[in-house]
Write a structure and sequence with these properties.
Blueprint (H helix, E strand, L loop, with lengths): L3 H17 L4 H18 L1 H15 L5 H26 L3 H7 E3 L3 H9 L3 E5 L8 H7 L4 E5 L5 H11 L4 E5 L4 H10 L3 E5 L10 E4 L2 E4 L3 H9 L3 E10 L2 E6 L12 H22 L14
Length: 294
């Protein structure tokens, strides 16, 4: 049975979506910023986590005033992400392609033409929720591997927002690996957000100079399926323009070594890509997560 806290969260989220239905992208940006400012003040524990994470990762390079500015923008970015994604999902493909742009569209075509699908690995950066919509606007099919939220009502709400024509959500459970391999075999793109703590702690590597637990899944799926890992980030430039940052495609067949060595090398490459871009645009990453638990 859902708790009072869970029910209130669901009611608030439902009301927010009801408002978002009537907003333009410009209005969504403003609405998200207002709510982000509100959550900045209402969630002191998350504000503290973000501040401490930034201090330890970037502290030597920036002062406290800049850290505070980044933390405030992080909260705005998180809320805007979900409101904007709802608004963008209402748009037709031609409009989506005008507001989500990339300097390297050939990378997806090349991989799709090869017929083995690809693992698109991304982070909670910019508006990560727009990745499926961008891919499908180009005419491809997309599966999103997504963690199951502890609040069942919120989980259903988010899943309904994410699933649309040519987009399917694969919940992280026992059947997830089988469904991922089926999707790749069907030449679909599989998106994985891979920048959070891996509770299994099976793969430990440096991230911003500190030990972090990194998920093995993206690399292992690609190795077993014989397809590439493509690192991608979606940077927000304005309320109606997002830029796709495309990393170098990682082909497991081009990496020497045994299975574990390949997993480590692939994971290290896309984590380096994440870190380099987070350093450039720190306000666009979700610092509110306890990333370092080692």
């Amino acid at each position: 049975m859902a708790s009072l806290k869970d029910n209130l969260a669901y009611i608030f989220a439902s009301m927010t979506i009801a408002v978002a239905k009537h907003l333009s992208l410009k209005q969504a940006n403003l609405f998200g910023s207002v709510l982000g400012n509100l959550f900045y003040h209402l969630l002191p524990s998350r504000r503290k986590i973000a501040t401490e994470n930034i201090e330890r990762a970037l502290g030597p390079d920036i002062d406290r005033a800049e850290i505070d500015r980044i933390v405030k923008e992080v909260f705005r970015n998180i809320v805007r992400t979900f409101i904007e994604s709802y608004c963008v999902n209402r748009l037709d493909d031609d409009k989506v392609k005008k507001i989500i742009v990339s300097s390297d569209l050939d990378v997806l075509k090349k991989v799709h033409d090869a017929g083995k699908g690809a693992v698109l690995v991304t982070a909670h950066f910019g508006n990560w929720e727009l990745l499926p919509r961008w891919v499908t606007s180009l005419g491809y099919e997309f599966d999103a591997l997504a963690a199951i939220q502890h609040n069942a009502k919120i989980d259903r709400l988010i899943t309904n927002l994410r699933e649309r024509k040519n987009v399917r959500v694969i919940p992280v459970n026992k059947s997830a690996p089988r469904k991922v391999f089926q999707a790749l075999k069907a030449n679909r793109f599989v998106g994985i957000v891979a920048d959070q703590h891996d509770p299994s702690r099976s793969l430990i590597m440096d991230f911003f100079g500190r030990k972090a637990a990194v998920p093995r899944g993206p690399a292992l799926f690609a190795i077993k399926a014989g397809c590439p890992v493509i690192p991608l980030l979606i940077r927000r430039e304005s309320y109606e323009r997002y830029f796709i940052i495309v990393g170098e495609s990682i082909y497991p067949s081009q990496i020497d070594g045994e299975l574990e060595e390949k997993i480590c090398e692939i994971s290290a490459r896309y984590n380096k890509f994440f870190e380099e871009n987070i350093r450039k645009y720190p306000a666009q990453w979700m610092w509110t997560h306890r990333r370092w638990k080692i």
